[in-house]
Design brief:
Blueprint lengths: L2 H19 L3 H9 L9 H13 L3 H14 L4 H13 L3 H14 L4 H14 L2 H14 L4 H4 L12 H13 L1
């Protein structure tokens, strides 16, 4: 790619990131159209494309660019998080869990990964795994306890005595 094309692409990507930060996914997709054929997108553009589709709740459509971005950038936890988000919302919890576990290999101290894995395992009905990941999330960042009460993903285990004990201990520490 010629230097001017690289600069142009970088500017478009920067604009897309701005649109996404402002919650304007339609404008982000319009800007990405200026890059041409999506089959020729680089990893960053694929990620941005997937994020824009995800923000529009077009989860099935977001999977392809996010899967391609994950292959090209296996160390980028943001890609894995977005992919897990879309898998969850397309009723593919096993793949959502797999995505976040791959991200965890890259960033084992990222509380959000542990918290989301707790949510996904809870939805899967595997209480012990959910508790393990929630405990780790709370150990890394005790503020996550503030989200537990409003998190519908924990509804299946919310009244379990072990779950309540974990939440009570975390509340007492915080």
């Amino acid at each position: 790619m010629k230097p001017l094309e690289c600069v142009r692409r970088a500017k478009i990507q920067q604009a897309v990131e701005g649109y996404l930060e402002l919650g304007m996914p339609r404008q982000a997709l319009d800007a990405l159209d200026r890059l041409g054929d999506p089959t020729d997108f680089d990893a960053r553009s694929l990620h941005l494309w997937g994020e824009a589709l995800r923000m529009q709740e077009r989860f099935n459509e977001a999977l392809l660019p996010l899967e391609r971005a994950a292959k090209a950038m296996p160390g980028n936890i943001h890609v894995w998080l977005a992919l897990g988000w879309c898998y969850k919302r397309t009723n593919q919890l096993d793949l959502a869990i797999e995505s976040l576990e791959k991200a965890l290999c890259c960033e084992p101290t990222e509380a959000l990964l542990h918290y989301n894995l707790a949510c996904y395992w809870s939805l899967s009905g595997v209480k012990q795994r959910a508790m393990k990941y929630l405990s780790q999330a709370l150990e890394i960042n005790p503020d996550y306890i503030l989200m537990v009460d409003d998190e519908p993903d924990f509804d299946m285990i919310r009244f379990d005595p072990d779950f309540r004990a974990l939440c009570d201990r975390s509340t007492a520490r915080g």
